Amino acid sequence: MAPQKKARNNQPQPPPQPSDYETDAAPAVDVPLPPPRSNEELNLSVLRRIYPDLDTIEHVTPYAALYTFNLETQQWEKLGIEGTLFLCQLTPSPTGAERFCAIIYNRRGLDNFYQELTSSDEMEISDPYVIIQGELVYGIWIFADPPPASTANCRVETAAKMMEVADRARASREATQPAAEVTDQVEHASSAPMGRQLSLRELFGQQREQDADFSIHNHNSHPMPPIAPAHPDVLGQLFRKAKQNHNGLG
């Protein structure tokens, strides 16, 4: 007997489905996205790559420019460092004292400005800039729009904050300083000559100038106003005297 043939299924078959990698591959594991970070966290992460001892950001100013005072010409000279100004708290010193610094994150080059703020005696507020005594005499120009803009008080607030953290650093350093070091300093001061280092307040106290129209729009085309001495070379003599006293030569 001949084998019987199976009856054909005349029902229509569904068309073949297209195949791609996503449908053929095993289902992917859901990986949660990292939580979004604030601007302060992002800024701190960037700055810590350059300055590992940064702890927190205390204050941010959108725009500042750096100048230095030339003793020969007795004028301010621009250093080509401009950008956001950060006031940061650093990790404590070995004795546990608080430390703070000012950083201008440069938009125009690779060189940033970094200066630890140790005392308000080494600073002077002279609108429109803050003067700091470091390796050089630095002048930080801080941008502020005229009222009623949101940045109208930026210059005043930033300058006050810089003085505040500088005094906090000095007070904390003095409070944590070993008693033996304090005694040595007192004995050294009593045996030192009568000459003393002139403070920035004395150097610049009579040299302040006002420049209310100095804005970010004409900042690059107008140099920083020079500090004109009351008498020829008086300011230069004060600087040289201060430097000699600082080096123990006065």
UniProtKB/TrEMBL annotation:
Main location class: cytoplasm
Organism in which the protein naturally occurs: Decorospora gaudefroyi
Cellular component terms (Gene Ontology): P-body
Segments for region (Disordered): 1-37, 172-192
The entry's keywords: Cytoplasm, mRNA processing
Protein name listed in UniProt: PH domain-like protein
Molecular function GO terms recorded: enzyme activator activity; mRNA binding
Entry-linked Pfam families: DCP1 (PF06058)
